[in-house]
What does this fold into?
Amino acid sequence: MLIADFAFALAVIAMLAANLNLSRRLPKRVAMQWGVSGKPTWSAPKRMAMWGPLALAAGVRLLVFLAMTAFPSSVHGPEIGLLISSIVIAGAHTFTLYKAAK
It folds into this structure.
């Protein structure tokens, strides 16, 4: 799990850096999803948009940890799941914030 934990730590650091770097340039509501036309379909308050994905990443990590300790024989490949979720959540979060800051 060392590589997955390292990737998780890097993802959290990247999300924190994006939050700190872009917090002043973000509007009060941040577009969270875009439709086919390129226009936002819904938005979230600034704080929710900034800290929600970090809470999601921590929740996924906690869920993986609890599954590994409670049901170790049933958990198969937690490393790849944690690795992929860390990359996807961090990538989507930084993309969303940078797009909103423009």
